[in-house]
Design a protein that fits this description.
The protein is of the alpha+beta class and about 350 residues long. The protein has 2 domains: about 230 residues, P-loop containing nucleotide triphosphate hydrolases (Rossmann fold), CATH 3.40.50.300; about 110 residues, Beta Barrel (OB fold (Dihydrolipoamide Acetyltransferase, E2P)). Helix content is about 25%, strand content about 35%. The strands form 4 sheets. It has a 6-stranded mixed beta sheet, with helices on both faces. A 5-stranded antiparallel beta sheet has the order 13-12-11-14-20. Helix 5 links the parallel strand 7 and strand 8. Helix 2 packs across helix 3, helix 2 runs parallel beside helix 4 and helix 3 crosses helix 4. The longest helix is centred in the middle third of the chain and has 18 residues. The radius of gyration is 24 Å and the shape is elongated.
């Protein structure tokens, strides 16, 4: 397998710059996920690594060797696309063997590789079928198998699960994680779904407008977002973000009711400065109104059996989401007092950057 290094990568289409000075090192055997909203440049960056897009500046290194001007076919990579891109007139066996035949491998070697990949992906009984006789999940496994048989240096995945329904996405996600554990290969995966990113990645690269906002393990990004964008993007449901201002040292006024929340780590922020409080839905307790940091009116209750989500509103604040374990019995239009757990509170300054704890 291989390590990848991107050095000052830039990409422009005419006057429109879409990738800005990206620097990234991916270790041998690492599973790295590029995540971000539509149009952030994640697929373009993947295609640059694959050699399907040229760079406007910078250098791509694989195992220390520059491949910036090396054709895609000579980089030793395999890519799995969102559309399965299978040959409809060929059997599963032929689809997986086709690239190996073009490489000039012997029939015995090809058969051995195809059967090994088919066994790994639970496709053995489907080898003689045509793609039209397969489910969406099976077709995607064939596309993955076609990549495996080539024994590439690096696997590249461009939103491979987006065409599958919710249940199949979960099942195929588990198969991909197991596949990475078995092969130990370097994998780079693009998705707009942060749940996929959280469950698959060794490290996540969060992109916005062609720039890297933060790189880290899933839990590092979840627990320590560097800015408001990452805080709002990573996590489902998303983090609650409450705009406020410093009303006194260590005190923040939030909402139209101007309730004051004591936050010791805000002590260094100047009086009157804007600040945003971030609190995950699971880090909010329901308390009596006289003990509350905020009081909301319940707009919607979602009962999911093992957990309950409450969605509420308060004057001049965005929607508030609260997670409760089990089957919490609350009603629409009910008033609830909320306490934000101080040890799990996040602070962001007027520029949207994280305010470090004191």
């Amino acid at each position: 397998m291989a390590e990848v290094k991107l050095v000052d990568i830039k990409k422009s289409y005419g006057a429109a710059a879409v990738i800005h000075d990206v620097n990234l090192a991916i270790a041998d055997g690492e599973f790295v996920v590029f995540v971000g909203p539509s149009g952030c440049g994640k697929s373009t960056l993947l295609r640059i690594i694959a050699g399907l897009e040229s760079v406007s500046g910078g250098e791509i290194l694989i195992d220390g060797h520059s491949v910036t001007n090396v054709p895609a076919s000579d980089r030793g990579l395999a890519m799995v696309f969102q559309s399965y891109a299978l040959y409809p007139h060929m059997s599963v066996n032929k689809n997986m063997a086709f690239a190996l035949e073009n490489m000039g491998l012997g029939k015995g070697e090809i058969d051995q590789r195809v059967r090994r990949a088919a066994q790994m992906l639970r496709l053995t009984e489907y080898l003689d079928r045509k793609p039209k006789a397969l489910s969406g999940g099976q077709r995607q496994r064939v596309a993955i198998g076609r990549a495996i048989v080539r024994d590439p240096k690096i696997f590249l995945f461009d939103e491979p699960l987006s065409n599958l329904d919710a249940e199949l996405r979960v099942a195929t996600r588990k198969e991909l994680a197991a596949l990475h554990a078995e092969l130990g290969g370097t994998m780079i995966y693009v998705t707009h779904d942060q749940v996929e990113a959280m469950t698959l990645a060794d490290r996540i690269v969060v992109l916005r407008a062609g720039r890297i906002e933060q790189i880290g393990t899933p839990l590092d990004l979840y627990n320590n977002p560097a800015n408001l964008f990452v805080a709002g993007f990573i996590g489902s449901p998303r983090m609650n973000l409450f705009p406020g201002r410093v009303s006194a040292p260590g005190q923040i006024a939030v909402g139209a009711e101007t309730r004051t929340i004591l936050v010791p780590s805000a002590g260094a922020a100047p009086f009157g400065s804007e600040i945003t409080l971030g609190s995950r839905p699971e880090h909010i307790d329901i308390v009596s109104e006289d003990q509350a940091d905020l009081v909301i009116t319940v707009d919607l209750v979602e009962q999911l059996g093992g957990e309950t989500y409450l969605y509420g509103s308060a004057p001049s604040l965005p929607q508030v989401t609260v997670r409760q374990d089990g089957q919490a019995l609350y009603a629409r239009n009910e008033r609830l007092g909320l306490h934000l757990k101080r040890d799990a509170l996040h602070l962001f300054d007027a520029d949207g950057q994280c305010v470090p704890s004191q």
